Amino acid sequence: MSSTTRRVGKYELGRTVGEGTFAKVKFAINTETGESVAVKVLAKSTILKHRMVDQIKREISIMKIVRHPFIVRLHEVLASRTRIYIILEFVPGGELFDKIVHKGKLSEMESRKYLQQLIDAISHCHKKGVYHRDLKPENLLLDARDNLKVSDFGLSALPQQGVDLLHTTCGTPNYVAPEVLNGQGYDGAAADIWSCGVILYVLLAGYLPFEETDLPSLYKKINAATFSCPFWFSPGAKSLIERMLDPNPKTRITIEGIRKDPWFPVNYIPVRQGVEEDVNLDDIRAAFDDIEDHFVTEQSRHLNRGPLIMNAFEMITMSQGLNLSALFDRRQDYVKRQTRFVSRETPKDIISTIETVAESMGLKVHTRGYKTRLEGISANKAGQFAVVVEIYEVAPSLFMVDTRRAAGDTLEYHKFYKSFCAKLDHIIWKPKDGIIEGGTRSHESKYHRRTLSKP
């Protein structure tokens, strides 16, 4: 079997860990330091075609400005003649969303810790004049020590000189403040606090405070702040959530008020910020403004054609903390945005089976080598749903089938994966040494009760 090695400057690129409409995110190694990083790869032609140059420049400039222990760190930006590479801190623990789906709801102690870290990060952003505007559990990552890392500043706003209110309606409807939906102008700081209130509710409850099948009904509930707290919320948590989900942004609790609230500071460990660093944006300007003069060398080394070989280091980072059973145990892994199983079938048979199953599910199939993209329309008919399936060789005659969401809603992806694996059950390898107990259906039924919906 074979592999393809690709290097961009001092970074050796590995597997794709995320894929969207405009970018791919790849795992990479800094060959000078051995450090793991994530590399966001954007095609210049795509950026220009969709007129996204200014938005992407703003996003990566903001990520450089807001350096903080609880915010994903942007190391540098590189450019080749055809692509832009954003080098980011590698965060191995996945999304907070996945943890909520997996556990149903979190304890008050754990929820409080995440809120404390979130408020620390958002407070730092606000002091820098940055408002996130798309805070939700999918955009909150967890590092190897289970600490929060705020990501995805694509909808963030910097205040314009002489302008106090923002006017762009953006974000995810269930987490958006009523004043943002009303389009009358809003204070970015107050809007972020509302989203933090929704997140705290979801952490403690395991489901959303505002949820309806149609947007008009959802907006009506949000505007009136119509929600109720389940019986297991403590009086302190309930009181703070009600102050954060105040529909009037002028009377809504502030960050300073949250920090003074008696529920908030229990077991609080103030973040160690360190010395404020000088931020240099020259690499960003070079990547976008002087494309022909400043570009990094791209090198690819192609060997015999076949599935990519996954090396031991990638397997370890993929398995979250040296526990390799997570690669093979679907009980631990089926709720991840990126999901995988292992097969002993030949790569060609795996691809053929995947294509047949996908077509039976009404999806369009595009296969290139040992990578397949499945496309369809999302369940709510509002946009595209897409999944990428890729095969890796992890040992002789043992192949990992890696599936990741490329477009569409996270919950819709989880439901798709459940159905997809049920149809692929005959090619999924199930070791007989206790790593996997029982078939796929028993584990999937547990997932069915772990969505962000009221029980």
Describe this structure in words.
The chain is α+β, with helices and mostly antiparallel strands. It has three domains: 4-90 and 283-302, Phosphorylase Kinase, domain 1; 96-260, Transferase(Phosphotransferase), domain 1, CATH 1.10.510.10; 308-431, Kinase associated domain 1, KA1 (TATA-Binding Protein). It is 34% helix and 21% strand. It is built from 16 helices and 15 strands. It has helices at residues 44-49, 53-65, 96-103, 108-127, 178-182, 188-205, 215-224, 235-244, 255-260, 282-289, 312-318, 325-328, 330-333, 347-360, 410-423, 440-448; strands at residues 4-8, 11-19, 23-30, 36-43, 74-79, 83-89, 140-142, 148-150, 298-302, 308-309, 338-343, 364-368, 371-377, 384-395, 398-407. The strands form three sheets. The protein has a seven-stranded antiparallel beta sheet. Strands 10, 11, 12, 13, 14 and 15 form a six-stranded mixed beta sheet that branches. A hairpin with a 3-residue loop joins β5 (74-79) and β6. α4 (108-127) packs antiparallel against α6 (188-205), α6 runs antiparallel to α8 (235-244) and α15 (410-423) runs antiparallel to α16. The radius of gyration is 22 Å and the shape is globular. The termini are far apart. The relative contact order is 0.12.
- Lateral arrangement of strands in the main beta sheet: 5-6-4-3-2-1-9
- Classified in CATH, the superfamily of the largest domain is Transferase(Phosphotransferase) domain 1
Beta-strand portion reads: 15-25%
* Total discrete domains: 3
- Say what the CATH topology of the largest domain is: Transferase(Phosphotransferase), domain 1
CATH architecture of the largest domain: Orthogonal Bundle
Helix proportion of residues, in percent?
25-40%
What Rg, in angstroms, do the CA atoms define?
A: 22 Å
CATH class of the largest domain: Mainly Alpha
N-end to C-end Cα span: 48 Å
Q: Enumerate how many helices there are, as a single number.
A: 16
What coarse outline follows from CA principal-axis ratios? globular
Per DSSP E runs of 2 or more residues, the count of β-strands stands at 15
Major sheet, described briefly? 7 strands, antiparallel
> Structural class per helix/strand content?
alpha+beta
The overall average pLDDT, rounded, is 75
Low-confidence stretches: 155-171, 290-295, 312-337, 433-450
